[in-house]
Amino acid sequence: MKILVIDNYDSFTYNLVHLLNELGEDATVWRNDKFELKDIAQFDKILLSPGPGIPSEAGLLLAVIKEYATTKSILGVCLGQQAIAEVFGGELYNLERPVHGTATKLVITDENELLFKGLKSGFDVGRYHSWAVKSDNLPSELLITATDEKEVMMALRHKTLDVRGVQFHPESILTEFGKEMIGNWLFS
To answer: What residues does the Glutamine amidotransferase domain cover (predicted)?
Structure first.
């Protein structure tokens, strides 16, 4: 399996790569502005890393999703999830208070979501964000798969494409079962 990690200039990117390595997979890492879209065709799966700012400021991030959502398995983390939502017509909002280095309980809202296979609601996830995807006007082709206890969207998926995202950081030490979630995506 060939995995591409799009690095959105974030210090957590290589923690994701280490998780992939622990699961027996190697990954190629490209910065979000240091490649050509056509070069992604060789990969089977694309992991969109966290990063600072908003998706429109993240190099080719939005273009990658637009170009490959119909043919590749894509998992977005934090900024990556936000980018997925925006590509399909979702909107972001600025949280009243940034959530950085905080663990909150995950409420799984879609028991069929492959990321959460074998897991139950109520485990901790590590959060590092000041933006989130709006739930109230989510496009019909996207489905909320998890929230926090205050109903802030924590995960989503496309209803027909192999495209999903998480707002939290599976690679964070604050997240329980991060390795299991990444494994569920890899080996589905």
So the answer is: 4-186
Active site residue 158: no
Angle between helices 79-87 and 61-68 (to 10 degrees): 50
Dihedral over alpha carbons 65, 21, 154, 87 (to 10 degrees): 0
Is 171 assigned a catalytic role?
A: yes
CATH class of 3-186: alpha beta
pTM of the model: 0.97
Distance CA 72, CA 15 (A): 22
pLDDT tens across 135-178, in order? Answer: 999 999 999 999 999 999 999 999 999 999 999 999 999 999 99
Q: Which residues contact 24 (CB under 8 A, 6 or more apart)?
A: none
Catalytic option among 113, 129, 158, 171: 171
